[in-house]
């Protein structure tokens, strides 16, 4: 019999893919999904060796019940947004509660999903593990950095992707489409490079880190080995926008975009990110853990384009 795995965040974009991957892994595993209510998305189609444990990261007693008999914890749940109280309760205190419960239950491997945003704004160019300080610039990132510490203090492993795309993404590419729609033409974003990863490859890396004997404690960056030029990322978003039939004029450079979008609260953050290198270099997930980084961005985006088209057609 394979390991008994508890997965949090299974109703989310990434956690749902991890749950589906775990349920269909070559080595059979007993999978338990922590959820506050009925499952939706990929996790809802999990296999016969999957069960649901009702619980909440803010309820320590429910976490102790969920962790009973668990060998491996894959923690993908998080609170994202501007609610500072919720972020602390879930990302910091909730992670501490969960890790404490897993350790008491005898779990031998703890893997948590975090974000490269714990380092704040770049420029980061081929940044290697251990070379950057923590400098979170938002309540989400600061509380996720605090959650990382609970995991690593227990000997666990943290995976830090930068930008994640694919089926189920309602933030990255939809956010860029929203940004571009506010401009009269395509955005010339300059020459920055960005680390991206396909959601299915990230799910495979989380599961691989949870099961591989080669996994080390501490943080990993987990992105496709080839960074993506900002022009390729913007071209993908522009292709989605063009499909909607919105008339497009001449290209707009970054200074002009900043001036035109000065009144939009989300625009400054997006433009700052796009203009700055965010390239993280860590081949250990692919070289040592035997995980597959998946296709490069151009092929990967094409694989998910139909889903994005459907999302935008109904928005």
Automatic annotation (TrEMBL):
Pfam families in alphabetical order: Epimerase
InterPro entries: Epimerase_deHydtase, Lipid_A_modif_metabolic_enz, NAD(P)-bd_dom_sf
Domain NAD-dependent epimerase/dehydratase stretches: 5-215
Source domain of life: Bacteria
PANTHER family according to UniProt: BIFUNCTIONAL POLYMYXIN RESISTANCE PROTEIN ARNA, UDP-D-APIOSE_UDP-D-XYLOSE SYNTHASE 2
Protein name: Possible NAD-dependent epimerase or dehydratase
